[in-house]
Amino acid sequence: MVRTIELTKRQEQILEIVKGNGPITGEQIAEHLNLTRATLRPDLAILTMAGFLDARPRVGYFYTGKSGTQLLTENLQKIYVKEYQSIPVVVNENVSVYDAICTMFLEDVGTLFVVDPTTHLVGVLSRKDLLRASIGKQDLTAIPVHIIMTRMPNITMCERDDLLIDVAKKLIEKQIDALPVVKKSDEGYEVIGRITKTNITRAFVALGEE
Ligand code: ADP
Questions:
Q1: What letter would DSSP give residue 87?
Q2: Could you tell me if 9 and 2 are in contact, meaning their C-beta atoms sit under 8 angstroms apart?
Q3: Per residue in 97-155, pLDDT tens?
Q4: Ligand 1 centre and the CA of 75: distance in Å?
Q5: pTM (whole model) above 0.70
Q6: Ligand 1 pocket, 156 CB below 6 A?
Q7: Going from the N-terminus, what domains does the chain have, and what CATH number goes with each?
Q8: At what angle do helices 9-21 and 37-49 cross, to 10 degrees?
């Protein structure tokens, strides 16, 4: 069986015992292994939390029949944007390309979100957008970012309650590095967060360590 969660030898033994004898009490599992109930407690807690076993009061432990891969998939479907989003960095649509480049360095981000004077989302600026605008001899302090940005309605966005896996799919499909997390209002979209490839990587690592 493919397991994505590394189990100890004893945890594997417990699984086999429960598979063959469940429902079975902690006491009975301990007897099978010639160990005390107290010794087994941490292992039973791990196996239950990870979803391999289910525990019913006054009945005992039974095997859920779920593989590590199935459990991983289930856990992936429970991660939401709001748990991993970062603080967005926004610039006004009238700031210059020069100032946007400075902001990108100062804030240490790869994508800037552009807002209008009412702070609603109007565009996105990536590193390459700014690099492209810097080729040539134009005066970067004289070009406003709204000239070069990717603009609404072509912005790919997400909301706090979206699944992170769906956002990851959008990043790949659209070949972009970041999405604004937005809140819709009558006047437009307010930028309340940002999801980047780094956030997705962080979630991936957390999932592997769970
Ligand atoms: P880079 O261009 O630095 O490699 P991206 O891959 O994120 O960075 O951006 C590629 C293009 O897609 C850029 O022109 C950028 O303006 C645009 N873009 C980036 N993010 C979004 C988004 N969320 N929605 C729509 N367009 C985007």
A1: -
A2: no
A3: 999 999 999 999 999 999 999 999 999 999 999 999 999 889 999 999 999 999 999 99
A4: 29
A5: yes
A6: yes
A7: 9-72 (1.10.10.10), 81-209 (3.10.580.10)
A8: 80
